[in-house]
Amino acid sequence: xxxxxxxxxxxxxxxxxxxxxxxxxxxxxxxxxxxxxxxxxxxxxxxxxxxxxxxxxxxxxxxxxxxxxxxxxxxxxxxxxxxxxxxxxxxxxxxxxxxxxxxxxxxxxxxxxxxxxxxxxxxxxxxxxxxxxxxxxxxxxxxxxxxxxxxxxxxxxxxxxxxxxxxxxxxxxxxxxxxxxxxxxxxxxxxx
Length: 192
Description:
Elements: E1 52-53, E2 57-60, E3 63-64, E4 68-71, E5 73-76, E6 80-87, E7 91-93, E8 96-104, E9 107-115, E10 119-121, E11 123-132, E12 136-144, E13 147-149, E14 153-160, E15 164-166, E16 169-171, E17 181-182, E18 186-188
Parallel strand pairs: 1-4, 2-5, 3-6, 4-6, 5-7, 6-8, 7-9, 8-9, 8-10, 9-11, 10-12, 11-12, 11-13, 12-14, 13-15, 15-17, 16-18
């Protein structure tokens, strides 16, 4: 079929299929421009995209992108991996969250968080470990089993059941732990 008739709805275009049955294709579908799906996209296999932006949630057993992943929320029953992860809501994974930068206006929670850049969230939780090459910042609680950061750590509360190893530790309230190690100064407005 060759036609210049532009498709602007599901009832216009060079080829229109109507009816409740849908279309079945045994091979590939190649689209030279944009593809529009009105109600939802579902795949039993892997969905591969160069850039993923969602006005709603992004969810799956494993979410991986070689570029930026942006969504209202990013939730996975497995792991989340992307160059940069940005969410106006939560970033959550049962497994590991890995990215150069993680930014969430909601909470960030995973069994392990790994980033070469910054981790920013209202509440940041790692059940196993957190490793950051940049700044770790939490407007709310920051809770980890193990915390390692080559940059700054900011939070209204910092809780660790394991070891927190820092270059310098500064608190506007108190510092408490079974063991506190620092190669730099330790200071607090309150008690240590």
